[in-house]
Amino acid sequence: LLLPVSNLCGKCRPCDIDLLQPSLNFLYWSLHQPTPCSQQRAVAVLLSNVSLLELLQKVLECTWLRSPPSEAAPLSPEDALLCSGWLLVASLVLYQHRYNTEVHQTLSLDLTEVLKAVIFRKKKPILLLVSIMQFLRAGLRQNFSSSLLVIVGQKTAQGAVEPQPSPPQEAALHPLSTQQVLSLLVSLQNLLVHTQLQKDLLLSQAVVACLETLVEYLYVKNKDVALHVASQPWHRFLLFTLLSGGQKSFLQPEVLRLMTLFLRYQSSNIISQKEISQILQEAAEANLAELPEATSRALHLFLCQV
């Protein structure tokens, strides 16, 4: 079934939403089968389909061609298709790398536009933001070196391609710039504050995961920049904000994961022995069997890091 559905997608246009939406979701589901053998077979079939990859290229480009709504609106069919496209491409990047699958057609993406979609979100639906961040995480985890992707050059505000970054720090972070890293960091922090107000668990999990992957990427590229980003004083205010809602417990998944991140990169100005003791005390008093799965997993990682 995977072969005819992928061939059908390759014959569609981005405007064929009613047909493409369930088809792309089926392809995404096919990639996430439980056995490695099934995953490897699925990614080989999809990456050998040039027409499908050309269609995905057009779908992704619609992200910046569409005008943002005048006000927050529910997920439209067009946005839902974009979500499916970004999630499918993120999975293809992941599994192509895992199984070293041959690529028959590359996808060209402007990294500046991808970052702008998150940094300047312009009332984008939450699910679309989460989907783009999922793709961004896949790219960061592979240092944007996936053989499936061609990252086009950074552009100035006037649209001219900038020369190769000359300072050592900028060259180390390439294809990202220091300014892009800091802008993305501020945007993720603001999104976390927004999720606290809106009580949106899906977005908060995606933002924290993206923040974790960003710092890991920076640590590989330039440890000084990574430690600088991880020790930003604004992070402490962010923690206080997350703890100021109705649920003041430290045993919130996003709080535990942030604490683990700061511990990992030794951000002693963000998390102190006092906070660590409070988390251990709350964990000792909690009924661990009744904790949600996300909380249990985050607590496990925190304790291992301690």
UniProtKB/TrEMBL annotation:
The lineage of its organism: Eukaryota, Metazoa, Chordata, Craniata, Vertebrata. GO terms for biological process: meiosis I. InterPro entries: Immune_Signaling-Apoptosis_Reg. It comes from the Eukaryota. This is MEI1 protein. It comes from Centropus unirufus.
